[in-house]
Amino acid sequence: MKVKIAIHGYLDRRFINLEKEVKIRDGSTAKDLFSKISKDIKVDVLEILTKGAPVTMVNTERLEIPKDLSRKLVDGDEVVILQPLAGG
After folding, report:
1. C-alpha distances in angstroms, 61 versus 31, 43, 44, 88?
2. Residue 78 has pLDDT above 70, yes or no
3. pTM of this prediction?
């Protein structure tokens, strides 16, 4: 199956502006996707997400990390990770 992932913002002191379609196995979870994409961008996305700063969504629904890492993805899902640039 294919899902879309978008990552925008600073992760591990690197600005990442990524939008791509990723092929993953049927039944894959959000955690599986983040592990796969971490290898591609050479940043440990799971570690950054569990620290709590980025906003993570699947199809406009916010994920609660780490609780929702086991959420199963389906073909066509759109996953977005947004790292706030400043607080306020």
Report:
1. 16, 24, 22, 23
2. yes
3. 0.90
